[in-house]
Amino acid sequence: MRKIILSLAVSLDGYIAKPDGDVAWLKKVPNPDKLDYGFSEFYRTIDTTIMGNNTYKEILGFNIPFPFQDRQNFVISRAALPDAAFVHFTSDVDHLVKDLKSKKGKDIWLIGGGQINTLFLNKGFIDELLIRIVPVVIGAGLPLFANKPGETLFELIRTETFSTGVTQLTYRPLINT
């Protein structure tokens, strides 16, 4: 069965972005070998992305072509929005997850942000966490999980460290309490 994998980077102090959504801090860690931290390998394992509307708007604000044109993409939004190039909008998370999981395909990348991460966590929809901890403290920002995440126990299934100081942790949820 397809897995929903929440995969993203966090600062040492647990933020996925600065308060204004800025993620430039991700590139502050020297990376002379141009490591992609396994992203290319991960990207080959997915054929679908899910993200919140704020994350979608941040991506559009990068002033580059939409980066996931070769995947099926869903944006969770409270407002009914018409589909856009490469993106389908929905507010019905339960139906979306049920539909995607019932179809054959590769895994599904939950890109975030914090509100969507919490929604999926609290509904028990996250099958795996793939978290890259970047050795930067940004002081304030958008948390990995926002708006009252439910207590959830995870099992560590893999750890990988890189010469840049980035650590990648892979977890599987055990119990929702």
From TrEMBL:
It comes from the Bacteria. PROSITE patterns: DHFR_2. InterPro entries: DHFR-like_dom_sf, DHFR_dom, RibDG_C, Riboflavin_Biosynth_HTPR. Gene3D superfamilies: Dihydrofolate Reductase, subunit A. It holds the Pfam family RibD_C. One of its GO terms (molecular function) is dihydrofolate reductase activity. This is Riboflavin biosynthesis protein RibD. It comes from Niabella ginsenosidivorans.
